[in-house]
Design brief:
The complex is a heterodimer of chains A (315) and B (318).
Chain A: H1 23-59, E1 61-64, E2 68-71, H2 75-80, H3 84-116, H4 121-131, H5 138-149, H6 156-162, H7 176-201, H8 206-213, H9 218-229, H10 231-246, H11 250-256, H12 269-278, H13 283-307, H14 309-312
Antiparallel strand pairs in A: 1-2
Helix pairs in contact in A: 1-13, 3-7, 3-10, 4-7, 5-7, 5-11, 10-13, 12-13
Chain B: H1 9-15, H2 23-39, H3 44-67, H4 72-77, H5 89-98, H6 103-135, H7 141-150, H8 160-169, H9 176-183, H10 187-200, H11 203-211, H12 216-227, H13 229-245, H14 248-253, H15 262-275, H16 283-303, H17 305-311
Helix pairs in contact in B: 5-16, 6-9, 6-10, 6-13, 6-15, 10-13, 11-12, 15-16
The chains are: A mainly alpha (315), B mainly alpha (318).
Chain lengths: 315, 318
């Protein structure tokens, strides 16, 4: 270790005073800090910042067979935000977010609250079974449900005919929305349940004692104490669910195999961007769509975090 | 500084125990004891509710198990939730080895390679960066970390088309790298590792190691790394699962059938089977293939229960 004692490093504002060490040590430390984070930052720059910048650059051009590639500025964005296919897709994923996220949350919270009051073998097994779909890839889950929904293989007919009802068509334009909500809820609610359950377990049990002495019953304890105390977990879950739902892609793409009539190629903004890029080779416009979607999702999550800063404790 | 690392007062207390180990690790032990006594295990209504939920979540998986044992005729004719007369699981598996030259196993192997290469790479990067952010007060740390954290909100699928265009510029489209390289990016993993490192690795221990003459690398490998094991398993699990489940990226960047992961491959078979041509209908292979492909993950979740039950929530408790 070489120590140069006379060098006075500029005082770096620190939140925590170091236990020991002078200014040289401090600078060595600074360098080590950068060394530790630099491999990640390199990947971050190459695979996130650079592609985004590249796509943004692409989105400012338009190429046609007649005129070649020319600079059109925000032209593609004007086109995107007046393109009914993009706007309908955007509204559709917003509708999915409004229905799907509460559905998943209600199932997850109810299951977690019940599990939190039980410690039996059966409750442990249920927790495992409810979580199980998370271990199944989205594609495979959607494939499984597409079999179950199918009028050819599915049990729908048998089940509904038993109670004297006609066989419903789960893959019709009118029902596909609910069918997709069901798939995603099935896939994710168990994961959210595990997260909420862990947050509930982190609450100090002495609070419940206090509540009981004050005369709170089980329901009151659950709704007035437990739910408010896991606010930050819920904010995280909703944020990730929101980001996931707005980029809805896998499930509708897989169901499109069996429900071409109900799901068109521009059903969600991501599907639209995909088909523009890979079916029509309109990479410039596809970049603009992808970039717009990314910006809207980013802005939406940011606004959501801002609005819920009280619940989450984030400032 | 960052928006995430600020803690609420009510959350700050139960988070860290005197030993500096995040509380959800050892609280699960105390908690279990405390709650077992309170619950008594005789709540019929609660149990009925749980069983109904569990049935809903498990029935499609049961269907898959049953369907994997049927041939195509059986899939059409027998009840969906029960076995048909003949048990065709083994003949289906045998057919997976011969159909299109056994390409299914190639797909499964590809999935393994992509998931582990991407997952391990992402985890290593996250451990290093999380440690750097948590334990070194370098200049610009706050700003850089805020940018990284903000990128958690950038939807990854919005990156697929840009990544495709960029990778095709460099001629690595339609190679394994086109899937593995983008999978290395895990800002959320970095966030998890930072949060966990802050709590689990006491500054005093690092200082003590340094005073004893250990270099920065040795301090990291011998002092910090062993303390981070639960978080490492969690981040590894999350990133391996993430890459294994990925669909949009490989769908966009791979066209060679030999390179597909099993998710995209099975979707391709389904599309072909639905398109109708008699010889291309391989429903029995799709169900058996799907069944085999979910086994590794289901089994690893079963065996790694200890880790994910506490670990999946590391980031969200705060």
């Amino acid at each position: 270790m070489t120590t140069q004692t006379s060098v006075a490093a500029p005082a770096v504002p620190r939140r925590r005073a170091p236990g020991a060490g002078g200014s040289t040590l401090l600078r060595r430390r600074q360098r080590w800090g950068w060394l530790f984070v630099s491999p990640f930052l390199a990947v971050f720059a190459l695979l996130l910042v650079f592609p985004l910048a590249y796509a943004f650059g692409m989105s400012l051009f338009t190429s046609t067979l007649a005129t070649g590639t020319e600079f059109t500025g925000v032209g593609n964005y004007v086109k995107a935000f007046t393109d009914p296919l993009f706007l309908e897709g955007m509204l559709r994923v917003l509708a999915f977010a409004l229905v799907m996220i509460p559905a998943q949350l209600i199932v997850a919270i109810a299951a977690a609250l019940v599990l939190d009051t039980l410690a039996t073998k059966l409750s442990k097994l249920s927790r495992l079974l409810i979580f199980a779909p998370y271990a199944i890839p989205g594609v495979i889950g959607a494939l499984m449900w597409s079999f179950l929904y199918s009028p050819r293989f599915g049990p729908g007919g048998t089940l509904f005919n038993l109670v004297g009802l006609p066989t419903p068509d789960f893959l019709a334009p009118g029902t596909i929305f609910g069918s997709l909500v069901n798939i995603v809820t099935w896939q994710w609610a168990g994961y959210y349940m595990v997260v909420i359950y862990a947050a509930l377990r982190a609450i100090d049990p002495s609070i419940y004692e206090a509540a009981r002495i004050d005369g709170a019953n089980g329901w009151q304890t659950a709704l007035r104490i437990k739910v408010p105390m896991i606010g930050s977990s819920m904010v995280m879950i909703v944020m990730f669910a929101l980001i996931g739902t707005l980029q809805f892609f896998t499930e509708p793409v897989v169901l499109r195999n069996v429900a071409q009539g109900a799901i068109d190629a521009a059903y969600t903004p991501n599907m639209y961007a995909y088909s523009l890029a890979f079916s029509y080779s309109q990479f410039n416009y596809a970049s603009a769509i992808a970039f717009s979607l990314g910006a809207l999702v980013f802005a939406g999550s940011f606004v959501f975090l801002f609005l819920t800063r009280k619940q989450s404790g984030l400032k | 500084m960052s928006i995430f690392t600020q803690r609420t007062t009510e959350a700050a207390e139960p988070l860290t125990t005197a030993t500096g180990v995040p509380s959800h690790v050892d609280r699960s032990v105390h908690g279990r004891r405390g709650r077992a006594g309170r619950a008594g295990g005789r709540r019929i209504g609660s149990h009925v509710f749980l069983v109904i939920l569990a049935i809903y979540f498990v029935v499609p998986i049961w269907w898959l198990v049953v369907a994997a044992t049927k041939d195509t005729a059986g899939l059409f004719s027998s009840p969906a939730f029960w076995f048909s007369g003949d048990f065709s699981l083994f003949s289906n598996i045998a057919e997976l080895f011969t159909h299109q030259g056994g390409i299914y196993w190639r797909w499964l192997g590809n999935s393994f390679v992509y998931a582990f290469a991407g997952g391990i790479g992402a985890t290593v990067l996250a451990i290093l960066a999380g440690y750097g952010f948590a334990k070194y007060d370098f200049r610009g740390r706050g700003a850089v970390f805020t940018v990284v954290l903000g990128s958690v909100m950038v939807p990854l699928t919005a990156l697929v088309i840009p990544t495709f265009m960029l990778l095709s510029q460099y001629g690595i489209i339609n190679t394994p790298w086109a899937v593995i390289l983008p999978s290395l990016l895990s800002p959320f993993g970095v966030y998890l590792m930072r949060v966990y490192t802050q709590d689990a690795v006491p500054d005093e221990m690092l200082e003590a190691a340094r005073i004893d003459g250990a270099g920065e690398l040795r301090t990291f490998f011998q002092v910090a790394l062993p303390l981070l094991r639960p978080a490492i398993v969690t981040v590894l699990l999350l990133s391996v699962v993430g890459t294994w489940n990925n669909f949009f990226l490989p769908l966009a960047v791979l066209t060679d059938p030999q390179l597909l992961p099993v998710t995209v491959g099975l979707n391709r078979w389904t599309a072909l089977s639905n398109a109708g041509a008699g010889g291309e209908q391989v429903w029995n292979l799709i169900t058996t293939g799907a069944f085999i492909s979910v086994l590794p993950l289901i089994l690893s979740f079963l065996f790694l229960q200890r880790y994910w039950q506490g670990g999946l929530s590391v980031g969200s408790i705060k």
